[in-house]
Design a protein that fits this description.
There is one protein chain. The radius of gyration is 32 Å and the shape is elongated. It folds into 2 domains: about 150 residues, no CATH class; about 40 residues. By secondary structure, the chain is mainly α.
């Protein structure tokens, strides 16, 4: 059976959308799982890489996709799988005529009210609108994930910085402890008033920290 040009064009439209989606999902899973996609055996372009279906299932298992978004991705994958694996699905009209539930879902969620075009054109336009939404869903998750990852790294760096400043200030105060104690006693204070001495050290410590963080 030969593949007609119109049939091939339809498959290329679906394939192009699916490739974009797979790229975005690879980036998202890479960020979430801390995997470098380019050299990954599961997310890269190697023969060992997971299929798009498997990647989508992982994404759904992670529960970072809302139910309404999940529905959109599943309907996108329904179209993609038929065009990529079923030779008899040569047009959008054939796909929807053979999948009544999908046809009703598209009519409800992506209605095309243009009387001057054919059903095939309407179905194709509805699929392209869904593709834009699905790409947008994953892209938003990519941006959110990148911001969270960046924030965590930034916070981690701040924690390291603050920890070093705290330790540095502590040891600086600790080194002056003997001299401070002598000074305290020379002022006629009793060692029994140790709480007053400790309070003075705390005040000194806090003032040093304020200088460091200004």
């Amino acid at each position: 059976m030969w593949i007609e040009k119109e049939d091939l064009d339809n498959r290329m439209v679906v394939l192009g959308s699916a490739l974009k989606l797979e790229y975005l999902i690879n980036q998202l899973l890479g960020q979430i799982l801390d995997i470098e996609c380019e050299n990954s055996k599961t997310l890269g372009n190697k023969s060992t890489s997971l299929s798009l279906n498997q990647k989508v299932l992982i994404l759904l298992d992670l529960k970072i996709i809302e139910p309404k978004e999940k529905e959109k991705i599943e309907n996108f994958m329904g179209v993609r799988n038929q065009f990529m694996h079923n030779l008899n699905t040569s047009s959008f009209e054939i796909y929807f005529d053979n999948n009544v539930s999908a046809k009703n879902w598209f009519k409800k969620n992506y209605p095309i009210e243009i009387n001057s075009i054919t059903n095939e054109e309407k179905y194709k336009k509805a699929f392209l609108n869904l593709s834009l939404d699905v790409h947008s869903i994953i892209l938003k998750r990519n941006i959110t994930s990148a911001i969270i990852k960046c924030s965590k790294e930034h916070i981690s760096k701040l924690e390291i910085k603050y920890k070093s400043v705290l330790e540095e200030t502590y040891f600086k105060i600790f080194e002056t402890l003997p001299a401070s104690l002598v000074c305290f006693l020379n002022e006629g204070k009793s060692i029994d008033n140790i709480e007053e001495f400790v309070y003075g050290l705390k005040e000194k410590y806090n003032k040093e920290l304020i200088k460091k963080f200004k």
